[in-house]
């Protein structure tokens, strides 16, 4: 293997500098697709996370530049870059958490499912690497269509005999982040005080905000419910259209991914009461995967919470979501099985 693009290895520091670093506590995190629109700002945010001791940046292009750049931030994490498939194994070995924003994004007029053809193969390759090199890592899967790529990764891990459903998490945090923002706007409050559970999946009608369960408790008019549900479900498309061909959400997505990764790391550390929504293997509905609130702990998604009481509007939404999700999940599963 060609050597990794190592930018700041502790072994190159003087002994006193090593002592000043306070030992090698913290978690090892890899970002796959680190040179992309999401990957770059996500690398920045993970380099700022005090729970991260080692940050591996992998992509098939441009990682030397991104790695050199991010490595100059005077935070604790040691940054190493890995370029091209032949360095994938080195990028993954020893990792506690692997975040995957690799793959093509949408352009106007495309659905997330239109990305399947390209991204399914990318996620398969990366999952095979994880099964081989860091089978116990927590995986945060961002690449779309999440509703299919999570089942793809699960099938790859099953084949390899490494599958632990608790450690495979589809990232739907951006839907929650958007929901909190849009609901706060309607209520006229600070978005940081709002928590909207968003369940189902991560595409169109499968994105199901539970506005009856918003915290702090509040109520909406039917018009507000329609407006909010539609805006949350189509928040991604809003960005794709505004970017007019230049891609999809990257900055808000990097923020959401960093928030979710931080929650996973706090769970790994053993913090109590870490709850986030995520698309995971689930028995909450008849589907094998579903996004709900999950409690994150040392083992990953240690507890999956039920949907809670739904109103009539949400029950109708749930039926629609389940129909579409079933197809997307099946598409992912059969991509690996057949
Ligand atoms: P981008 O095109 O800017 O970056 C993708 C990166 O992946 C590129 O640097 C590319 O070189 C890299 N890549 C391609 N093949 C690879 C491989 N085999 N191994 C490693 N890296 C590889 O795209 P962007 O905007 O960063 O989006 C990435 C993905 O995230 C897309 O699939 C997009 O749909 C998805 N996404 C998911 C969201 C979610 O809420 N889960 C929200 C927004 C985007």
Automatic annotation (TrEMBL):
<feature type="binding site">
    <location>
        <position position="253"/>
    </location>
    <ligand>
        <name>NAD(+)</name>
    </ligand>
</feature>
<feature type="active site" description="Proton acceptor">
    <location>
        <position position="202"/>
    </location>
</feature>
<feature type="binding site">
    <location>
        <begin position="142"/>
        <end position="144"/>
    </location>
    <ligand>
        <name>NAD(+)</name>
    </ligand>
</feature>
<protein>
    <recommendedName>
        <fullName>Malate dehydrogenase</fullName>
        <ecNumber>1.1.1.37</ecNumber>
    </recommendedName>
</protein>
<dbReference type="Pfam" id="PF02866">
    <property type="entry name" value="Ldh_1_C"/>
</dbReference>
<dbReference type="GO" id="GO:0006097">
    <property type="term" value="P:glyoxylate cycle"/>
</dbReference>
<dbReference type="InterPro" id="IPR022383">
    <property type="entry name" value="Lactate/malate_DH_C"/>
</dbReference>
<keyword id="KW-0560">Oxidoreductase</keyword>
<dbReference type="GO" id="GO:0006108">
    <property type="term" value="P:malate metabolic process"/>
</dbReference>
<feature type="domain" description="Lactate/malate dehydrogenase N-terminal">
    <location>
        <begin position="28"/>
        <end position="170"/>
    </location>
</feature>
<keyword id="KW-0576">Peroxisome</keyword>
<dbReference type="InterPro" id="IPR010097">
    <property type="entry name" value="Malate_DH_type1"/>
</dbReference>
<comment type="subunit">
    <text>Homodimer.</text>
</comment>
<dbReference type="GO" id="GO:0005777">
    <property type="term" value="C:peroxisome"/>
</dbReference>
<feature type="binding site">
    <location>
        <position position="178"/>
    </location>
    <ligand>
        <name>substrate</name>
    </ligand>
</feature>
<feature type="domain" description="Lactate/malate dehydrogenase C-terminal">
    <location>
        <begin position="172"/>
        <end position="335"/>
    </location>
</feature>
<comment type="similarity">
    <text>Belongs to the LDH/MDH superfamily. MDH type 1 family.</text>
</comment>
<dbReference type="GO" id="GO:0009507">
    <property type="term" value="C:chloroplast"/>
</dbReference>
<dbReference type="InterPro" id="IPR001236">
    <property type="entry name" value="Lactate/malate_DH_N"/>
</dbReference>
<keyword id="KW-0520">NAD</keyword>
<dbReference type="GO" id="GO:0030060">
    <property type="term" value="F:L-malate dehydrogenase (NAD+) activity"/>
</dbReference>
<keyword id="KW-0329">Glyoxylate bypass</keyword>
<dbReference type="GO" id="GO:0006099">
    <property type="term" value="P:tricarboxylic acid cycle"/>
</dbReference>
<dbReference type="InterPro" id="IPR001557">
    <property type="entry name" value="L-lactate/malate_DH"/>
</dbReference>
<feature type="binding site">
    <location>
        <position position="59"/>
    </location>
    <ligand>
        <name>NAD(+)</name>
    </ligand>
</feature>
<dbReference type="Pfam" id="PF00056">
    <property type="entry name" value="Ldh_1_N"/>
</dbReference>
<feature type="binding site">
    <location>
        <position position="112"/>
    </location>
    <ligand>
        <name>substrate</name>
    </ligand>
</feature>
<feature type="binding site">
    <location>
        <position position="119"/>
    </location>
    <ligand>
        <name>NAD(+)</name>
    </ligand>
</feature>
<feature type="binding site">
    <location>
        <begin position="33"/>
        <end position="39"/>
    </location>
    <ligand>
        <name>NAD(+)</name>
    </ligand>
</feature>
<feature type="binding site">
    <location>
        <position position="144"/>
    </location>
    <ligand>
        <name>substrate</name>
    </ligand>
</feature>
<feature type="binding site">
    <location>
        <position position="106"/>
    </location>
    <ligand>
        <name>substrate</name>
    </ligand>
</feature>
<dbReference type="InterPro" id="IPR015955">
    <property type="entry name" value="Lactate_DH/Glyco_Ohase_4_C"/>
</dbReference>
<dbReference type="InterPro" id="IPR001252">
    <property type="entry name" value="Malate_DH_AS"/>
</dbReference>
<keyword id="KW-0816">Tricarboxylic acid cycle</keyword>
<dbReference type="InterPro" id="IPR036291">
    <property type="entry name" value="NAD(P)-bd_dom_sf"/>
</dbReference>
């Amino acid at each position: 293997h060609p050597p990794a693009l190592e930018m700041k290895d502790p072994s190159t520091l003087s002994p006193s500098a090593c002592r000043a670093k306070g030992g090698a506590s913290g978690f090892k995190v890899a970002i796959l697709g680190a040179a992309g629109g999401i990957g770059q700002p996500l690398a920045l945010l993970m380099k700022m996370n005090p729970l991260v001791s080692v940050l591996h940046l992998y992509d098939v292009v441009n990682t030397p530049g991104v790695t050199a750049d991010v490595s100059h931030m005077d935070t604790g994490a040691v940054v190493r870059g890995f370029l091209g498939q032949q360095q994938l194994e080195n990028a993954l070995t020893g990792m506690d958490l692997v975040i995957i924003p690799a793959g093509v994004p949408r352009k106007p007029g495309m659905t997330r499912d239109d990305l399947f053809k390209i991204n399914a193969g990318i996620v398969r390759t990366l999952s095979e690497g994880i099964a081989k090199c860091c089978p116990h890592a927590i995986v945060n899967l961002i690449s779309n269509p999440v509703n299919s790529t999570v089942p793809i990764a699960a099938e790859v891990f099953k084949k390899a005999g490494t599958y632990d459903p608790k450690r495979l998490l589809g990232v739907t945090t951006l839907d929650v982040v958007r929901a909190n923002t849009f609901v706060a706007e309607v209520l006229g409050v600070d978005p940081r005080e709002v928590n909207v559970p968003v369940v189902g999946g991560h595409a169109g009608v499968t994105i199901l905000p539970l506005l009856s369960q918003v915290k702090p408790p509040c109520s909406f008019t039917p018009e507000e419910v329609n407006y909010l549900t539609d805006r949350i479900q189509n928040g991604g498309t809003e960005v794709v259209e505004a970017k007019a061909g230049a891609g999809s959400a990257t900055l808000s997505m990097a923020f959401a991914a960093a928030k979710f990764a931080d929650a996973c790391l706090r769970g790994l550390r053993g913090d109590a009461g870490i709850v986030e929504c995520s698309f995971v293997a689930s028995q909450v509905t008849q589907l094998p995967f579903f996004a709900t609130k999950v409690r994150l702990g040392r083992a990953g998604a240690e507890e999956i919470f039920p949907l809670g009481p739904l109103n009539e509007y949400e029950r109708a939404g749930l039926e629609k979501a389940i129909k579409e999700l079933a197809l997307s999940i099946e598409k992912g599963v059969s991509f690996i099985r057949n």
